[in-house]
Structures are given as structure tokens and as C-alpha cells.
Amino acid sequence: MKNNLRSLREARGWTQGALADELDVSRQTVNALETGRYDPSLPLAFRISRLFGQPLESIFDPEEALRA
Amino acid sequence: MTRKLDTSKVDSSRGDRARAKAYFREFVPGMVGYVVVLVVVLIFGDLDGTSPWRFVWAILPVLPLLLVLRAVSRHLRRIDEFQQHQLLQGLGIGFAVAMIAAVTVGFLGIAGLDMRLAGWIIFAAGMVGWVVGAAGAAAIKR
């Protein structure tokens, strides 16, 4: 699933490591999320949504997932 | 902007380092114990002898490995969902490869082939399967 996690993170001046600590996941996981290699579970997706103060659908592109 | 920072030598977050440290702290005693017990068994165990106690000596190195099992188990609960997925996929493939190796070795044994190292062949196959499976899980888009 496509997402704009990288641009949201960069807008805040965070490294992947810093975002990983905010979300309590590994840097490897943040990288996999940003590159679309991994789709997060609902709890993690909601943590991301809460952290950036944006609804899920503005961070993740569900159309991309539905087409897959 | 921050990509420059992301390619820095520190390829982990604080949480990563804490988890790795905890794993290392729990894993090392088991491995050190294994090596120490193994050396003691090889020196004093008289595994080529005829005493029935040699069987007890032979399985002694397995005991410290239980600490390794505990360390891996606790590590699995500590890591995040993506890492769990990768680790479990690797373990699953390793298990499947080990089972196939076990059946293969079993049939070869039935056919009369001397398989004194059968256990180690199965172990090696499982470990290789685990590593290859984990590498594959890391490369495949999910």
C-alpha cells in the first residue's frame, strides 16, 4: 500500500530512527513501511495516524491496496 | 532533508539498540555455557567408552542451549510486528526444510545408508533454511 509516511516524517525533520522510537518499532520497520514493502497492522496504522494527527486515509492510499 | 541522516552509520533507533542489547545479554550466557559444557564433555565425557553414563554426558551440552531457546523466545516477543513476521517466516521455512531433510535421511537410513551424522545434517538443513527464509522474507514485498 502506498503511503506518504516519508514526506510526513521529513516535514517534521525526523530521521527514520526518531520516528521508529516515536512509534516503538524498529528503524527497519519504518524503512519497510516507507518503501511500501510492509503494510502495517491496524494498531500500528492508528499509532501512525495519531502521531501525525491525520486520518488513516490521508496517510495510506487504500485504492492502491484494493487494486492489488 | 533527513535522508542524509538516515544513511548515517547508526542504523538503528534507541529502541533497536535496547532490544539488541537485551537479546545479546540473554543469548550470550547460553552460548558461552554451551561451549564450556561441550569442552568439558569432550575432555571428561568418555563418549567413546562403554559406561552407560556416557549418554548422560552426551546430552549435557543441550542444557545451556535451553537458555538460548529462552533468549530467542523472549526476543520474539520483544521485537515489533514486521520483525516478528520476518523471523517467523524464516523459522517456518527452516522448519519445513528440516522436516524434508529428516524424511529424506529417514528413507536413506531405511535403504541401508549409514547415516551416523543424520541429526547434524537435519540441523544444518534447518539452519540454512532459516537463514535463506529470513533473507527471502526481507526481500519480498508484503
Helix and strand topology:
The complex is a heterodimer of chains A (68) and B (142).
Chain A: H1 5-11, H2 16-23, H3 27-34, H4 42-52, H5 56-59, H6 62-67
Chain B: H1 3-6, H2 14-44, H3 53-59, H4 62-78, H5 81-110, H6 118-139
Can you give a write-up of this model?
The complex is a heterodimer of chains A (68) and B (142). Chain A is an all-alpha fold and 68 residues long. Chain A has six helices and no strands. Chain A has helices spanning 5-11, 16-23, 27-34, 42-52, 56-59, 62-67. In chain A, helix 2 (16-23) packs across helix 3 (27-34). Chain A is globular, with a radius of gyration of 11 Å. Chain A starts with a helix and ends with a helix. Chain B is an all-alpha fold and 142 residues long. Chain B has helices at 3-6, 14-44, 53-59, 62-78, 81-110, 118-139. In chain B, helix 5 packs antiparallel against helix 6. The longest helix of chain B has 31 residues, at 14-44. The radius of gyration of chain B is 20 Å and the shape is flat.
Key phrases:
heterodimer, A: 68 residues, mainly alpha, 6 helices, B: 142 residues, 0% strand, flat
Concise synopsis of the structure shown:
The complex is a heterodimer of chains A (68) and B (142). With 68 residues, chain A is an all-alpha fold.
Listing every helix as H and every strand as E from the N terminus to the C terminus, the arrangement of chain B reads HHHHHH
Q: Tell me how many strands of chain B there are.
A: 0
Give the end-to-end Cα distance of chain B, rounded to a whole number of Å: 27 Å
* Main beta-sheet annotation of chain B: none
The N- and C-terminal alpha carbons of chain A lie at a distance of: 9 Å
Weakly predicted, low-confidence segments of chain A: none
